[in-house]
Please model this.
Amino acid sequence: MGLMDFIKGELIEVIEWTDDSRDTLSYRFPDEDKAIKNGAQLIVRESQQVQFVYLGEFGDTFAPGKHTLTTDNIPILTRLKSWKYGFNSPFKADVYYVTTRLFTGNKWGTANPIMMRDDDLGIVRARAFGTFDFKIVDPKLFLKEVAGSDQNFRLDEFADTMRSRIVSIFADALASARIPVFDVASRYSELGEALLPLINPVVAAKYGLQIASFIVENVSVPPEVEQAIDKRSSMAAVGNLNDYVKFQMAQGMEKGGSSGGMATELAVGLSIAQQIMQQQGMPAAGAARSAAPAAAAAELLSPADVAQALGVPEADVMTIIESGELAAKKIGSSYRIKRSAVDEYLAK
Model:
């Protein structure tokens, strides 16, 4: 091997890189401590950019295309190396290929609940997860803040770091957006679009990235909050509580075979009989009270008696008593209700 062959073997004449992994973010061209020949060919493919680094300082950035490396078309590197008068000589520099295509389907999620202030629920803990697509828009900033001098920086090395950074930004953006928790489930797509203008300026300024799409797939609250939401929905479905109690009483009257239904029918029958006697001018109630003290006692019912007679829970009876819809007399700590008061309530 002659001297010229040896010298030629120590120079890099063609610089190119093809990515067959589909998950490489940046790649440092292996120079094997060789110098780049002045006039060497640099090939940059679509979805790639090349960044030169000389002695730790960023040099020139090359877009897709075929470039001939001379002191005329690498002005920043020429200035860093202090070449003068177009001096032609080999040069040493690190060459980084940065992939600028879109990386899709990256998952994000909150490892721990995030605290947020909600107008309806107050302070609430929420979890969220989804996917996002991103691409590198500033190779210099990305290499400086994220990839560093890694020779082959891959997506799996970056996933956990990016996920935590995205979640942190998402938490701040969600707090700024002030979207109620009750509305989140029906506005996932709107939420993602609304958060993009809040997330992108941060990731672009810090990491040289752009989030092309941010998808929120789910936002969940603790089980106890979900139960409270379910109860609130149930109350909204019931509507007016008094009307609901009356409806349950009517349902009890329709139960022909049950003891509650029979008692309800008996109460209605007694009410009709009393009305007939009153129309005929017969003092039935007064005579019954004077003639039979036991019958007078039977005219007074406890809430449990009314509930059993009407076929409804005792709690429903207490509700209409406390609301004043059903007249009752409180004796000590107990309530007593006249049968006529029950009749009047049912006749409303």
Remarks:
- The chain has 14 helices and 15 strands.
- Residues 118 and 180 are 6 Å apart (CA to CA).
- Residues 155-177 form the longest helix (23 residues).
